[in-house]
């Protein structure tokens, strides 16, 4: 059987799947081990039994709603390939709005809360030479994926990943040459020659794409989402719990004039913008994604 014949059959098998024809081409390219842009050139070649069997298995999984990224084990995000497993959220095209917004201004140190695959932090560091950052998550298996992505993309020396609840995951070293000591903590005058100080790491950019689907909305989601980690999708409440924690806790971690920006669900803009203003942020803005839906809320720490 040629690739073209197998593809025609697969497109028919995926007729009930939204975007099924496109997915069939992606999976065929993966089964044949060719780049998607070269698929047309090899469509008339006969497939080996191994290739055909692998392709048909993939089509069966996709017909059962397994996301393409989990079948092939990766996803393209902002022009780079990220490893994806069932332990991480499949990086979404709409999250590229957060990346584009962050890249509008300079930054040197980034904190990514709820890092998942690490796609946000790693992309920002790849796009900003010399920048460093931390990613946090409550899922250790996700952190392993983020570390693997950082290694695969050659950025492991510029980022670290820590387990824990939002800001509580950020390690607070007692003394460190690595972190800037705040002026009010500096040892001066007649004090001891050496002293250990808790030095809270501070960042000029804090980003997050937290779980923002309300528990009550979970049942209505596309079947594909049942393959994604529950804790990556919902806070188990009204969908705003993460924003409350992130807006309440940025104070010790964000430098003066530093920016906080979060991805939101399209109906959450006003609520999250109000939280940022109530927490004392300035220049609060809501930004749309490419489909025109509210997608990012950002604010700036006062000087
Ligand atoms: C929507 S996913 C985003 C993943 C990735 N940043 C992205 O944009 O693709 C949310 C992530 O937040 C993590 N998470 C959930 N609750 C958390 C908490 N309390 N503290 C830190 N991370 C949390 C989840 O494990 C998940 O990896």
Report on this structure.
The chain has 303 residues and is α/β, with parallel strands linked by helices. It has 2 domains: 3-64; 86-300, 3-Layer(aba) Sandwich (Rossmann fold), CATH 3.40.50. 33% of the residues lie in helices and 18% in strands. The chain has helices at 3-13, 20-32, 39-42, 49-63, 68-72, 96-102, 119-127, 140-152, 230-233, 241-249, 269-278, and strands spanning 74-77, 80-83, 109-113, 132-137, 159-163, 203-208, 254-263, 282-288, 294-300. β1 (74-77) and β2 form a beta hairpin. α1 (3-13) runs antiparallel to α2. Residues 176-180 and 189-195 have low confidence and may be disordered. It binds S-adenosylmethionine. S-adenosylmethionine binds next to α7, β4 and α9.
Average per-residue pLDDT, rounded, comes to 92
* Structural Rg: 22 Å
Q: What ranges have pLDDT less than 50 throughout 5 or more consecutive residues?
A: 176-180, 189-195
Structural class: alpha/beta
Q: Sketch the major β-sheet.
A: 7 strands, mixed
**Roughly what fraction of the amino acids lie in strands?**
15-25%
Q: Could you tell me which ligands this complex binds, including any ions or cofactors?
A: S-adenosylmethionine
Strand order of the largest sheet: 5-4-3-6-7-9-8
How many structural units, i.e. domains?
2
Helix amount, in percent?
Answer: 25-40%
Quickly list its features.
303 residues, alpha/beta, Rossmann fold, 2 domains, two-stranded antiparallel sheet, 33% helix, elongated, binds S-adenosylmethionine
